[in-house]
Amino acid sequence: MQVEILEKNGEEVRLRAIANEEEMQRAFTDGLDAFILQYNLDTLKGESSYDKIVNTLKQDEADQVIYSSVVNFLVPFAISEYGKAPLATYDISAEDAPSKDKPFVFELTFLEKPHFELSSYEPATVTVGQKPEVQDSDIEEQMLMLARQVAASQQNLDPDSEKLVVPAVTDSWVSENLSESGISTVQDLRERFRQTSEEELATRYEQAKMVAAMEAYLQRFTGTVSEKMLSAMTQELFETLVSDLVSEGTNFEEFAKQQGLTEDEVKESLSAQAENQLVQGFILDAIFEHEQIQLQPTDLIQALKNIAPGKEEDTFEAMQKSGRAFLLKQSAQRMKAAEWIMDNTTFVTE
What pTM value is reported for the model? Predict the structure, then answer.
């Protein structure tokens, strides 16, 4: 793919890209396949993804889907050809409709991911609370809750129904209802609940330690998040929220009505989250580079597990085919930088 810099203003770059015929054929195959897969439309009539789209949608709707799917597929390759990691991409345009049989010219604007330094890279010392412990009362409450759920299912009642008869949790009840899970006594059940509770508390405690450590490094951040960066990240979070709501069977209008918020108020709330995410990412990038941390193949595998547990191979293939492998590398780098922070921070308990 050929790319030409049209304009560069700080972190904002305007590119013109030309995809050749081979790249267009791949875009019409892999780009449209991604659309069909994303919206679970594989059962539609047609041999190819292109056929499924044009056979199902009205002409103008099909043209729009094809345009957006093809262009969104090409954009990461154009940025990759430019050679710098993007923070956000927007204002994509083309004079002609894309065709798989001829080169395609399009323009895009993206924000180059900046590099910031920290005022100090010395290991931090932070204060955290005591590690929480699992209480016996918590275990008993979980056992009672389980008994209510099993009884509700067996009696075809709501777990909160006054008519529900909740049995005592005895060895015989456990053996009768939980033996297939490898639990046959009350003691087994208690131990299982204690194990899972301890694992959950340990995970939460490590997360709390990471938050405390990041607070220390936030004080060392020397950069400034520009309005363009903040606006782009806020919009990305907003679009993710809208997409999540649709996947849950609702929409933003219903969500906003339930919350009593306007779109501007939601975006204002997301803005603080966006700034925090940006700064934390920049801090991890700075640490990774300053400490000259090296990535190993196992780090990429772990990053894939974090991104899509149980779907590592499919996710890797999809990222490679869509030109988004740089996101996997960035995720692995930030994961390793976070590990460096945890390994090198002194935690003092209150």
Answer: 0.83
